[in-house]
């Protein structure tokens, strides 16, 4: 990997981290108990975390998703104020369009990672689920809706649909390439990304004719609880065409 280059956007004061060559990313992995991968679940973490924050979700879902390989790549950029934290793109709240610019900048990195994983396991998008939390949800939706072939499922926790603020979500219909099934899960008491983001995102996806379900977790803040894990796991089993798991099978 080539060294990072920091560029200051003088209009917004945002420091963007770029690479002079294509970046590669990696993170913790969880192989299927059978030893043979028939499906791939990629977990995209939130702002300030890294892949270790989400990989344990794979252990919770292993019984429901046999023969599934889980991987949680670390985002490519470190946070200057938090050396152990990572970001898919900077968030300063100074520019209303920074999420759109940032998601587009990070998309090729994730696309390249997915292509490498398909080659590694002999799989394709029909066996892929992208799962995100917070900023990772932004990336899961942004990337998953623009793959040449749609993934089997997109699952987002505590995040939102990124749109070009100048065009709005109405432009999404002409911008995306596929319409995979989506489930959005959000905490009712989320004070970081308020639950309104769930409804706005679901509305934007519906306008773009993307099949979207949603679930609101009562009393939950910015996080994932057992109820959300259960709903997400069941959604993935359905999208992968797996049998409905027996009660108490997860974990």
TrEMBL record:
Belongs to the AB hydrolase superfamily. AB hydrolase 2 family. It comes from the Bacteria. This is Phospholipase. PANTHER family: LYSOPHOSPHOLIPASE-LIKE PROTEIN 1, LYSOPHOSPHOLIPASE-RELATED. GO terms for molecular function: hydrolase activity. InterPro entries: AB_hydrolase_fold, LYPA1-2/EST-like, PLipase/COase/thioEstase. Keywords: Hydrolase. It comes from Chelatococcus reniformis. Residues 33-233 form the Phospholipase/carboxylesterase/thioesterase domain.
């Amino acid at each position: 990997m080539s060294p990072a280059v920091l560029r200051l956007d003088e209009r917004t004061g945002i420091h963007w981290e770029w690479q002079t060559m294509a970046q590669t990313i990696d993170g913790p992995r969880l192989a299927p108990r059978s030893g043979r991968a028939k499906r791939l679940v990629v977990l995209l973490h939130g702002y300030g975390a890294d892949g270790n924050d989400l990989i344990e979700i794979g252990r919770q879902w292993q019984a429901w998703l046999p023969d599934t390989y889980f991987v949680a790549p670390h985002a490519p950029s470190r946070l200057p104020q938090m050396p152990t934290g990572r970001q898919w793109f900077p968030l300063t709240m100074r520019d209303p369009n920074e999420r759109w610019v940032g998601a587009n900048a990070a998309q090729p990195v994730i696309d390249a990672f997915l292509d490498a994983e398909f080659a590694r396991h002999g799989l394709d998008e029909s066996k892929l689920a992208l799962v995100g939390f917070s900023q990772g949800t932004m990336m899961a939706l942004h990337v998953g809706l623009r793959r040449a072939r749609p993934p089997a499922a997109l699952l987002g926790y505590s995040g939102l649909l990124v749109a070009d603020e100048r065009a709005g979500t109405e432009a999404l219909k002409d911008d995306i390439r596929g319409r995979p099934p989506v489930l959005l899960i959000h905490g009712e008491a989320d004070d970081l990304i308020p639950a309104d983001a769930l409804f706005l995102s679901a509305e934007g996806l519906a306008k773009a004719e993307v099949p979207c379900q949603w679930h609101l977790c009562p009393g939950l803040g910015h996080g994932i609880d057992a109820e959300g894990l259960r709903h997400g796991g069941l959604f993935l089993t359905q999208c992968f065409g797996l049998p409905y798991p027996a009660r108490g099978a997860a974990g």
